Amino acid sequence: MEIIENGFRFRVGLSFAGEDRDYVEKVAEQLTETLGQEKVFYDYNYIAEFAGFDLDIHLQKIYREECELIVVFIGEFYNKKPWCKVEWQTIRGLDFIKPNGNKLIMLIRMDDGAVDGVPPNAGFIHAGKFSPPEIASFIIKRLNSNNITQNYEDKPVLGSKNPVTDLKASKVKANSSKHSYTLLNPCNFDLEQLIRESMKVLLVKTQGLFGLAIPCNDDAFRNHFCERLKEDDGISNARIINTLTLDRKKSNLEYTVNSIKRYKKCLEKEDIICPIRVEVNKKDKSYSDEFWQEICTAFPNVERRLIIIMVGSKDKIFPKDVKKLEPPKFEEVDVRQWVIKISKIRRWEEDIIQEWMQTMITDCRPSHSPSEQMDIGSVYDHLSYSQELLRRNPPPPAKAFLEELKQRIPADV
């Protein structure tokens, strides 16, 4: 049963554009550690609840009636997205339908893009100047200053006979929940060697143009690798832009280069990670080098890093002047290590651990292959589905979780 405190279902509701999810998710993790997952409205935690008709009405009800504080991550993307406009229309209206409605809203600016309905005198915090944990701490301070919630710094368990012991236990539980929450992200599966090789290139200097080429034609890998790279301690305040395609037949060179040049202004204050899907064959092999020459000309000097991540199948042609890296190899040992980490945090028994290992290996190994190497796309698909199941509120019991995973595997495998 949902516990409603002070008439509100959620302490905090987060409204943001999908392009800013990487940053916002880290804020959500920090808030979850302090407030508890059930008190933070973050969309990925309520996927099942959203699967139905009239989602726009449901979202409006959540923001209008069920959140004590609404944190809006505004910027260029927020102003363009249809769903953000639905949410923003409701949030703006709070000032008119509730006493002190403006105190229920907190603005975090992701970039300098204009947002319709935000007055010029509105106060905000600029995300570019603070890390996600710092933003989360500001949100907690705002809750406390509004007197709409308790101080969550050192809150003992209600009814506790030993508040000090219970407080320590609750913090350990929160940290475990956060650790599990982070590990579940598919970008955290293996990739250590590839990240290490990448950082050998990127840590040489803190500004300039960098090119990395990886012969792996899997969209999920490309996305998760960029996300993992963004989280490395050597990269700070980075933005991943939309994937571009290098293909003479589908897009001209000028369009591809101009799409990257749009972010020149952003490079004054943040690193830019630009993933590119390479579709250049041997007969057009000069096309890749022409692209790289154009990029070098367009970005002779930048204040931060412009990191071009080029991925494609092994037969595609990459520019000769970019650093070529070995593609990832996911093996059974990687599966076993990951399953053990997640299961231990969730305190699952050994029989559950072994059963999940075998289920994942069966699901991810190429059919009739004697090799221990896993199919990359299948691994990420399994990881994503496991993440979806375990982030349900509440998450399924271990046995039910395994049964749902097994239902995905074809009978002839």
List how many beta strands DSSP finds.
Answer: 11
Summarize the helix and strand pattern as letters. Answer: EHEHHEHHEEHHHEHEEHEHEEHHHH
Fraction of residues in helix: 40-55%
Helix tally equals 15
Global morphology = globular
Radius of gyration: 23 Å
Mean pLDDT over all positions? 82
Specify the biggest β-sheet: 6 strands, parallel
> What ranges have pLDDT less than 50 throughout 5 or more consecutive residues?
1-5, 147-179
Portion in beta strands: 5-15%
CATH architectural type of the largest domain: 3-Layer(aba) Sandwich
Kindly identify the CATH topology of the largest domain: Rossmann fold
Describe the structure.
There is one protein chain. The chain is α/β, with parallel strands linked by helices and 413 residues long. It folds into three domains: 10-151, Rossmann fold (3-Layer(aba) Sandwich); 191-324, Rossmann fold; 330-406, no CATH class. Helix content is 45%, strand content 13%. The protein is built from 15 helices and eleven strands. Helix 1 links the parallel strand 1 and strand 2. The longest helix has 21 residues, at 163-183. The model is unreliable at 1-5 and 147-179 (pLDDT under 50).
